[in-house]
Specification:
Layout lengths: L2 H22 L6 H12 L16 H13 L3 H12 L2 H6 L17 H7 L4 H21 L7 H11 L11 H14 L2 H12 L3 H23 L6 H9 L3 H27 L1 H12 L20 H4 L3 H17 L27 H29 L10 E5 L4 H11 L2 H4 L3 E5 L9 H15 L6 E4 L4 E4 L7 H16 L10 H9 L7 H7 L1 H12 L6 H5 L5 E6 L2 E6 L14 H13 L4 H7 L3 H4 L2 H6 L4 H4 L1
Parallel strand pairs: 1-2
Antiparallel strand pairs: 3-4, 5-6
Helix pairs in contact: 1-2, 3-4, 3-6, 4-7, 7-9, 9-13, 10-13, 11-13, 12-16, 16-17, 18-21, 21-27, 23-24
Enzyme class: transferase
Keywords: Transferase, Ubl conjugation pathway
Organism: Durusdinium trenchii
Length: about 625
């Protein structure tokens, strides 16, 4: 290599490292000091930073962009600067900041008002800036998105998304490339978590606008394709692959998933006991709580009309693709499967776009597909074994009304997962009749009624909320609770609606397992009197009168067990630890943990063994079995 080329490579190396340090260094940082550090690092084996241009960092352009954004600038200035901004990664990382510090996982440090002023462009400049943005997105995709997860770099995506031209109807070419980039980031957990936090901090109108862009893109894309036929499965398969339609819709749904996560954070804040208590106190004074962070989008706003009105063809297509994908990839989740190998629209992965009617339809389609497959397998096995082994294509339960729980338990306990997927037929001993649906419905109603009966001892009724909760004093074996979970799954699988009265906390535990975070806000929903007492303890302001008002309290929970008062320690040695003004928050936290976890752990874990729904395609694929039913 010639000396001239070596000098050029060395210069490029210094300039790209210099640009990276300027983006990531905390302020205030002198340019000369950062440049000196870049010279030192350039002489090491440090990898060359990705994404940055090989030219010197455009610090003067950063200042020009910020000035034009702050005072509005002239139309000519904005039209000149915006395309340059959108095509340069360094500028996207550095310009339009609210303060000089680099972004963090909690703060994108983006001045949205300034961005809106800057992007007031002529049609020609808007098109030019989108073209530059699309080229930059392609370059980033070619280099890989792993390093883009760092907040100082990830901020560039937030600036791109602020361009109003992305949501304007047209050929959507720039939007498709940005969505492909965003789709890759959504599959990376650190990047997704950061984006969700940043989106949750956007004004609600902006979050609604981002969601509206995706809804419009999906709707127009599907309506355009629908003219070529969505009437049957073959039509959908052909349309899905044309011009990468399925991939584009899937990427748009990933963007919607980030909006969904941001909205869930807002809902959590809205339902937090502190927010609810503050709103209650203000209502008592005739005022309304004005908290932007507590405002959220209705869940129906995530439903996409085009998807829900396309008919069963699209639902069948996605279920078929997911079944094949999971079969060939040994049940891996979507994030473990290369995106290029997928041909589905992403509806199963992101069920929030479906209305309740469409969700039930999809569950019914899956149930019928699995039932038919199990029937064919049983009949084929019987033929293969020359009928030496009786393979019934139905799951037959023969029970007596007087001992319905014992009979159901004994039979369901011996059936494997595959057998439970067969169509269900119920026979009441000594009664004639063909089960056309009415018998099995009666079976489920009687069985659930028996299991809910307080004399049975599995659950206790909470009169305040008219819900049932696990009986901490239950002597029933864990198999009984597993039976209850299996019954729930079996009923859903066979399209039977049950009258089940659990607080939302139970469904949260079923959806999220051991990672579920339950607290006072959840206790308010089904034991409001107890929750209000604990809130009063937390809101007490006078440390001197705390003991006189609430004491004596210890880190124990007292409960009645067959007429005798029992104590359960909230922490080791809790019976000897007094609750004080200083440790009251720990007491409340441990009290809630005892109610939701410790006291019922052995029961709630086993009711979670709802073997049918848990291992169904939808539940397993979405990694949240009841999620498709609850939204």
């Amino acid at each position: 290599m010639s000396l001239a080329k070596q000098k050029i490579r060395a210069k490029i190396r210094v300039q790209t490292i210099f640009a990276e340090l300027l983006v990531t260094s905390p302020a205030p940082a002198k340019t000369s000091e950062v440049g000196g550090e870049a010279l030192k690092l350039a002489q090491t084996d440090r990898p060359l930073p990705k994404y940055f241009a090989t030219a010197a960092p455009k610090l003067q352009t950063v200042e020009a962009v910020d000035k034009a954004a702050q005072d509005g600038g002239s139309q000519e200035q904005r039209d000149l600067l915006a395309p340059e901004l959108c095509g340069d990664f360094f500028l996207l990382c550095m310009a339009l900041k609210r303060h000089p510090q680099p972004p963090t996982e909690e703060d994108a440090n983006l001045d949205l008002a300034a961005a809106n002023r800057l992007f007031e462009l002529s049609p020609e400049a808007s098109a030019a800036s989108l073209e530059q943005m699309a080229k930059l997105a392609e370059q980033i995709l070619a280099q890989g998105c792993e390093e883009l997860q760092s907040p100082p770099f990830l901020r560039a995506i937030m600036v791109m998304l602020a361009h109003p031209g992305l949501g304007e109807p047209g050929d959507f070419e720039a939007l498709k490339k940005i969505l492909r980039l965003l789709g890759q980031l959504q599959r990376l957990k650190p990047a997704k978590e950061t984006l969700v936090k940043w989106f949750s901090q956007l004004p609600l109108t902006v979050l609604e606008g981002r969601l509206g862009q995706m809804q419009q893109f999906i709707t127009l894309s599907l309506l355009e394709a629908q003219g070529e036929g969505f009437s049957n499965l073959d039509d959908v398969i052909a349309v899905a692959q044309k011009d990468g339609l399925a991939r584009h819709v899937r990427n748009a749904l990933r963007m919607m998933d980030i909006c969904w996560g941001a909205n869930e954070l807002r809902i959590e804040h809205q339902q937090d006991w502190r927010t609810r208590r503050k709103a209650q106190l203000m209502r008592q004074q005739g005022q309304i709580l004005e908290d932007e962070g507590a405002l959220c989008l209705p869940l129906t706003q995530f439903h996409n009309d085009a998807i829900n009105e396309c008919g069963e063809g699209v639902l069948k297509h996605d279920l078929k693709e997911v079944l094949e994908m999971q079969y060939h990839n040994r049940g891996q989740y979507f994030t473990s499967v290369e995106d290029e190998r997928r041909r589905d629209f992403g509806i199963v992965e992101f069920p929030f776009v479906l209305t309740p009617v469409s969700k039930v339809r999809m569950l019914n389609i899956e149930s019928l597909l699995l039932q038919r497959e199990e029937m064919r397998s049983s009949m084929a096995l019987s033929v293969l074994l020359r009928f030496q082994l009786n393979q019934n294509p139905w799951l037959v339960l023969k029970v007596r009304r007087s001992t319905i729980v014992e009979d159901a338990l004994q039979q369901l306990a011996v059936f494997g997962r595959d057998q439970l997927k067969k169509p269900l037929k119920v026979v009441f001993d000594g009664e004639e009749g063909v089960d056309e649906g009415g018998v099995q419905k009666e079976f489920f109603q009687l069985l659930v009624e028996q299991l809910y009966n307080e004399d049975f001892g599995m659950f206790e009724r909470i009169d305040e909320s008219r819900n049932f909760w696990f009986n901490k004093n239950s002597f029933e074996v864990n198999l009984q609770f597993e039976l209850f979970g299996t019954v729930l799954g079996l009923a859903i699988y066979n399209q039977v609606i049950l009258d089940v009265h659990f607080p939302m906390a139970v469904y949260k535990k079923l959806m999220h397992g051991s990672s579920t975070k339950l607290g006072l806000q959840d206790l308010l929903d089904f034991q409001p009197s107890l929750a209000q007492g604990l809130i009063g303890l937390l809101e007490h302001e006078d440390a001197g009168s705390f003991q006189e008002t609430f004491g004596p309290l210890r880190f124990v929970v007292e409960y009645e067990c067959f007429g005798a008062v029992q104590e359960a320690e909230l922490k080791e040695g809790g019976k000897d630890i007094e609750v004080t003004f200083e440790n009251r928050e720990e007491y409340v936290r441990r009290y809630c943990d005892y109610i939701f976890n410790t006291s019922v752990e052995r029961h709630s874990v086993h009711i979670g063994e709802y073997r049918l729904v848990q291992h169904g395609t939808i539940g397993r694929a979405a990694n949240r079995p009841f999620g498709i039913l609850m939204v």
